[in-house]
Amino acid sequence: MTAVTWTLEIARDQCMGSGMCAGLAPDLFRLEGAQAEPVREELAPDERALDAADSCPALAIVVRDGHRTLGPRP
Length: 74
Prior knowledge:
Elements: E1 6-10, H1 20-24, E2 29-32, E3 35-38, E4 42-43, H2 47-55, E5 61-65, E6 68-71
Antiparallel strand pairs: 1-4, 1-5, 2-3, 5-6
């Protein structure tokens, strides 16, 4: 049986370093200098990752399940 894994991506050219993601889920995101980055790129499904993608003012966070984009949600 294969475990479900999501991936987190942050568009470096879009990220404005607001810190919203790190505030919502500090174990998933951190600020590195003036930009955010995922603590780890792969994770078990976690609703907080989707909440961070939805809350990002620059829409720089993308959550994927394989090739399917889960967040930000429409």
